[in-house]
Amino acid sequence: MAGNGKYKIVVGADGSEQSRAAMDWAVQEARLRKGEVQAVTAWNFPYVSDALGTAWDYEIFQKDAQAILEAELERVKDQDVAITGRIVEGNPASALIEASKDADLIAVGSRGHGGFSGMMLGSVSHQTIHHAHCPVLVIREPGVD
Fold first, then answer.
1. Which residues, 6 or more positions from 8, have their beta carbon under 8 angstroms from its beta carbon?
2. Could you read off the pLDDT tens digit of each residue along the chain, which spans 145 residues?
3. What is d(CA 25, CA 62) in angstroms, rounded to the nearest whole number?
């Protein structure tokens, strides 16, 4: 059990269909175990700039992450489960791996928004399953072959 004695499931929330499916599963599982869910949304600065060297408005990345997290929390509210959210600046896989230190389970989608069609696992889910400090469940969107 997580530090507070409740079964804690951390979910990677990026707004993709797979992450929504992972959240739905986590909420159902937490309800059965009388546990809690923490949605983690990560954002980071792009590694490229445009040809003119225009400065990025970095605040927009954090605002986008906040909007994604708020939409996900709104979508799953009123489920009789304690659900919290956390925004982390940094690599999504690193954020989930760090969150796994205080979790009983990590639930992630098989591919997020950055996935290439046809890949079985995205880079975030792949890194998470290999480095997390707790079990990891990878959810595929229903109907994805």
1. 1, 2, 35, 36, 37, 38, 102, 103, 104, 105
2. 776 788 999 999 999 999 999 999 999 999 999 999 999 999 887 666 666 656 566 788 889 999 999 999 999 998 899 999 999 999 999 999 999 999 999 999 986 544 434 444 568 888 999 999 999 999 986 665 5
3. 26
CA 48, CA 86: separation in Å to the nearest integer?
26
First to last CA, the chain: 34
CB-based contact 58:64 (threshold 8 Å) = no
Q: What are the start-end ranges of the E strands in 2-120?
A: 8-12, 36-43, 82-89, 105-109
Look up residue 90 and give its amino acid.
Answer: G
Element (H, E) at 26: helix 17-33
Amino acid at 137: L
Element (H, E) at 65: helix 59-75
**Nearest Cα residue to 110 out of 86, 129, 138:** 138
Give the type of residue at 58.
Y
The span from the CA of 60 to the CA of 53, in Å, is 17
